[in-house]
Amino acid sequence: MTSSDDSLGAGSEETAPYSESSPDPVTPAEHPEKQSASVFDGVRKIRTVHLAAAKKQGEKFAMLTSYDYLTAQIFDSAGIEILLVGDSAGSNVLGHESTLSITVDQMVPLVGAVAAGAQRALVVADLPFGSYQQSPEQAVATAVRMMKEGGAHAVKMEVNDYFVDHVRAVAQAGIPVMAHIGFTPQSEHALGGYRVQGRGETGAKVVETARLMEEAGAFCILMEMLRSDVAAEVERIVEIPTIGIGAGGATTGQVLVWQDMFGLRQGKMARFVKQYANLFDTIQDGARAYRADVRSGAYPAAEHRFDD
């Protein structure tokens, strides 16, 4: 899953192939009289079965990225249902230009930190580029490391039809798999860059891929930078929950990269990013105030010293 890029969400609209036959599913908010208690009420540890129940009840849930113990604690205490330790840590934590460079050995400690900080949320670990593409056996081995060494509760794989056997093998090994379709950042070069997926005749192909992933045993479908009408069709045809990032509002859940939504990252944001805070300015202002206090001698003051 990517962070913001200038080209994300860009492009002209085309005729919607599913707009007439597949409207966005009705949500409880549209019919208040049908609302019932949340499936997450009283749940001490969120499992895949709770996410499945949420879709059946027409309830939505939230997922955020997290790469460390403290943010995991914060997001978990805020009620976020899923924490994704994404390979986006390559750029957001390690400073790489893309997600392609991060390794399994670099991912495992991050997964462990998030798993330690999350008491209630479901922790999902990305399988990084090169760690599962070779064979179903390689995919199982990497997924086992994320579960056994990192403490993840599930794994995410960027997939197309080629990965049906990979998803099936991991799922049959007893490891929950989130299948990531639409724009898949690990395939950015093959896809021709950061482009919205599902336009024209390719929409039907994306829908079919989602169906194949469900049949292979995926517990959830994540859709990135996908035409909203195509995402709505996927949500309609699969029984498992779906999660969107730049895929419209029909999905069961939504996900954002936390540095984007909290304004830690500067620059132009993708169309689908809503910023809920501006931490960059807050942290920068604090750092400047600290430096000024140190230079002036105002810090440390008497209350910060051990004089007795």
Would you mind describing this structure in some detail?
The chain is of the alpha/beta class and 308 residues long. Helix content is 34%, strand content 12%. It has 10 helices and 8 strands. An 8-stranded parallel barrel has the order 1-2-3-4-5-6-7-8, surrounded by 7 helices. Helix 5 links the parallel strand 3 (122-126) and strand 4. Helix 6 packs parallel to helix 7. The longest helix is centred in the last third of the chain and has 18 residues, at 279-296. Residues 5-33 have low confidence and may be disordered.
List the helices and strands and how they pair.
Blueprint (H helix, E strand, L loop, with lengths): L47 H10 L3 E5 L3 H9 L4 E4 L3 H4 L11 H14 L4 E5 L9 H13 L5 E5 L5 H9 L4 E6 L19 H15 L3 E5 L3 H10 L4 E4 L7 E4 L1 H4 L17 H18 L12
Parallel strand pairs: 1-2, 1-8, 2-3, 3-4, 4-5, 5-6, 6-7, 7-8
Number of strands: 8
The secondary-structure class comes to alpha/beta
Give the terminus-to-terminus CA distance: 53 Å
Which runs of at least 5 residues are low in confidence (pLDDT < 50)? 5-33
Mean pLDDT: 89
Question: How is the largest sheet built, in terms of strand order?
Answer: 1-2-3-4-5-6-7-8
What fraction, in percent, of the residue positions are helical? Answer: 25-40%
The largest sheet is:
8 strands, parallel, barrel
SSE pattern, N- to C-terminal: HEHEHHEHEHEHEHEEHH
Strand-residue fraction?
5-15%
Question: Which terms summarize this structure?
Answer:
eight-stranded parallel barrel, single chain, 8 strands, 12% strand, alpha/beta, 308 residues, globular, 10 helices
